[in-house]
Amino acid sequence: MTQKKISVVIVEDDEQIREGISTLIKSSDGFLLKGAYGECQSLLKEIDDLLPDVLLMDISLPGISGIDCTKKIKESFPAANVIMLTVYDDDEKIFESLRSGASGYILKRASLDQILEAIRDVHNGGAPMTPSIARRVLKYFDQSSANPNEFNLTKRENEILHELVEGLSYKKISEKLFISLDTVRSHIKNIYQKLHVNSKSEAILKTLQKKSR
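User: That's the sequence. What structure does it adopt?
Assistant: Structure tokens below.
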């Protein structure tokens, strides 16, 4: 039985980078390029017909930013998998991207193999998280104004985030906490989901507060 190819859409305003990744996707087994865009407006007009498995989204784009574009896509298609493309390793914009609904990010200096692996990982239910992002997530939930009883992190999720902050790999965390690698991945994906829901609730709360003034 032929395995279904992972369909990908790229949004990147740097033509050289866009063409390079496009060529990579088209020439790699198991992947299908559905589209490549230099800005978000054109993508949003066609997203209903495209519905790719994974979107590779630049953060800094002309017109609508990658962060705002991700929000719009996730509002219409909550299950969409978005990976942010960025030149920054530890930047507030990365965290804002993840809060907007992205499932992970990859640096533009990453190797071609790393880009493909990130696409596979997110498509298969993974959600990569680095120590710097884990630190921001912990701080965010500690300071969040959203309902803590509904969106707080569990004891296990806190443990995993603290281990990530210390630089442990998913494999090392699974060994230390005596849980499977898939369980670690599941917890991290759940943390991302809470981050998305929490951010949305926070935005709604701010809107209601403004209206009541």
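The chain has a mean pLDDT of 87.
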